[in-house]
Design goal:
Layout: H1 3-7, E1 37-38, H2 40-69, H3 79-106, E2 111-112, H4 114-139
Parallel strand pairs: 1-2
Helix pairs in contact: 2-3, 2-4, 3-4
């Protein structure tokens, strides 16, 4: 056998024909799950719960200062005391709205729920703490 005939043989050319039998696709990477967006209701609940908590803390501080600086205590029928009381209940209402938005954010599908969880917890704590403070205040005297 002549080695020259082996060396001079043309190199095989790649064929561009489609394979006659389809081979199954084997995934090389695990399926990547889509990144969920944050819940808009959850973000609103978180924001409102923080605002409501700060406002409640501020108005309770104002009420405490008014009580401490007024000789004999503040008159419960004075316009200032009525405004402070109305604002406390308005801010509790704001915390209730935040609680509702947080619960709404918790039931949304395919959304991140961290802000909804935080908004629900913060607004619940603000509502319960304020109501406990009001209940404690009514027992004093």
């Amino acid at each position: 056998m002549d080695t020259a005939s082996i060396d001079s043989a043309p190199a095989p050319t790649p064929t561009t024909q489609a394979p006659t039998q389809a081979s199954p696709q084997v995934p090389t990477q695990p399926a990547i799950q889509p990144e969920f967006k944050h819940s808009g209701l959850g973000i609103a609940a978180f924001t409102l719960s923080i605002i409501a908590t700060l406002l409640i803390f501020g108005i309770v501080t104002v009420a405490g200062v008014m009580e401490a600086t007024t000789p004999g205590g503040i008159d419960e029928t004075s316009p200032e005391a009525i405004v402070v009381g109305m604002l406390i209940f308005a801010f509790i209402g704001l915390a209730l709205v935040a609680l509702g938005l947080g619960i709404g954010g918790l039931v949304q599908k395919q959304r991140k729920k961290i802000f909804a969880i935080l908004g629900t917890i913060f607004s619940s704590v603000a509502i319960l703490a304020t109501l406990a403070l009001i209940a404690y205040g009514t027992t004093i005297d």
